[in-house]
Design a protein that fits this description.
Aspartate Aminotransferase, domain 1; binds pyridoxal-5'-phosphate; alpha/beta; Aspartate Aminotransferase, domain 2; seven-stranded mixed sheet; three-stranded antiparallel sheet; globular; 9 helices
């Protein structure tokens, strides 16, 4: 068996030990004689799996007791509609910080439900940064302020938690959740799809301050009404049971690695290997401003894009896959989530050095 270094942006690499445990438990989970996939979501076995996953997530992120943790479906793109339906609470306008492709998707969808204001945008500089907080013009009457904490495509990440006054702060954390400690109390709602840094696609995590729910628009589908979901312990409808089980294994793995501060330290070290190399290279370059660079998704360009195909081919031959950048931005992108070992990043940098020496 050969495992590659998988630099996919999502669905993304999972820790090998988690996959091994899932394989070992596939046919018979803990003597139940069943796979987790075959269990009733209302049976005692699955209820225990679900409760443990939630407890571990609460522990890892130190989620305050007045926040609900919801395990939903529909992905972050689904949440682009579900969040406004639940969070307008009688208001009419939402403030967005536009930092790139995922912000734009959130903005477009929210327009179906509300008036949208762009309180700050990095469009003018080609989405190479997070607009500094001092440039934001916030509306105190907005239902909430929406940020994307890590732009998975552009590789732009917040390295500060924005202070937004009395207006609720909502964050799409799909691609950097659990990569570092977060002070959840500074946010009012955090959401994200699981398939970047948590587990299989199909599970969406929502962490929401409980006093903000219960005022969903009447058109909100019941399965997407946070209050309904919360009151039913995320079992209003059948939850994505197997994805929740794998997420629980990943949470346990993170805890065993030393929790989120340890993850953050490892992630900083991995990203530094790549960015330090990019910054001294005359052959490759990073398109993102230094203080906004993502520790999870590292886009880079070859100065001569005619060599892109040869670069990717050589990477693949060396067991490094999925390095092609998103079609909207081109170039390369190395996604180095929690599960990417430092050896994978070292192998990539060594290959970049070799490629540069051979082609510069
Ligand atoms: C991947 C991603 C999404 C889309 O998630 P889906 O699960 O496909 O709906 C949205 N926002 C960000 C920041 C992402 O990385």
């Amino acid at each position: 068996m050969t495992r590659v270094f998988n630099f996919s942006a999502g669905p993304a690499a999972l820790p090998e030990s988690v996959l091994r445990q899932a394989a070992a438990e596939m046919l018979d989970w803990h003597g139940s004689g069943m796979s987790v996939m075959e269990m009733s979501h209302r049976g005692k076995e699955f209820i225990a799996i679900h409760a443990e996953a939630e407890a571990l997530l609460r522990e890892l992120l130190a989620i305050p007791a007045n926040y609900k943790v919801l395990f939903m479906q529909g992905g972050a793109i689904g949440e682009n509609a579900i969040v406004p339906m639940n969070m307008l609470r009688g208001k009419t306008s939402i403030d967005f910080i536009d930092t790139g492709e995922w912000s734009k998707k959130s903005i477009k969808e929210a327009k179906k439900y509300a008036k949208v204001r762009i309180a700050a945008s990095a469009e003018a500089t080609g989405y190479d940064r997070v607009p500094p907080r001092s440039d934001w013009t916030l509306d105190p009457d907005a239902a909430y302020v929406h940020v994307c904490s890590n732009e998975t495509i552009g590789g732009v990440e917040y390295h500060f938690t924005p202070e937004v006054g009395g207006v609720p702060l909502v964050a799409d954390m799909s691609s950097d959740i659990l990569s570092r400690p977060v002070d959840v109390a500074q946010y009012d709602l955090i959401y994200g799809g699981a398939q970047k840094n948590i587990g299989p696609a199909g599970l969406t995590i929502v962490i929401v301050r409980e006093d903000l729910i219960g005022q969903a628009l009447p058109i909100t589908p019941s399965a997407f009404d946070y209050k309904q979901v919360a009151d039913n312990d995320s079992m209003y409808n059948t939850p994505p049971t197997y994805a929740i089980y794998i997420a629980g294994l990943v949470f346990n793995w993170i805890k065993a690695q030393g929790g989120l501060s340890a993850m953050a330290e490892r992630n900083r070290a991995k990203a530094a290997l790549l960015y330090d190399y990019l910054d001294q290279s005359k052959f490759f370059k990073s398109p993102v401003q230094r203080d906004c660079r993502s520790l999870m998704n590292v886009p880079f360009k070859l100065r001569d894009e005619a060599l892109d195909a040869a670069f990717l081919e050589g990477a693949e031959a060396r067991g490094m896959l999925q390095l092609k950048g998103h079609r909207s931005v081109g170039g390369m992108r190395a996604s180095i989530y929690n599960a990417m070992p430092v050896e994978g990043v070292k192998a990539l940098v060594a290959y970049m050095q070799e490629f540069e020496a051979a082609n510069a």
